[in-house]
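Running low. Got one?
___
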Amino acid sequence: MKKIRKTDTIIFIFKIILILLTAVYPLTFVTLSGAGLVFNRESYGESLCITGILLIASGGLMTAGAVLCCLRKNLVSAVCSFSGFGLCKAMLIRLAEHADRCGWTVARTLQPVSDMYRDRLLPAAVPVALTVIIAAVQHFCSKEKQ
């Protein structure tokens, strides 16, 4: 019978947390924010439609990175997660600048829309960091076993 090490159990728990956080932040918040921009492209214009498409792609990359991490594709998962978050951050900056330039505010609170987008998209860094940490631990633990 195979002996289960303590690090394997901890990594398994972190993978469960990673999948849950990925389902909430990159898969839901980032992807649906992009989908909203694409869906309302008539009123937002072509530039924001492209931003929305790239937000959807960034959410997909971050989600793929988390799934690949769970499948022990360590290097590929880290690259996917980092590139997805970099693209998400670039599109967030572009979107926030446009929203501030146009003076968009939330009707009920009069809070700038750019703050709302930052609140929704920046927490996607947590699953990305967790993906990289898990991938690094898996990589070094697998070398340790050999």
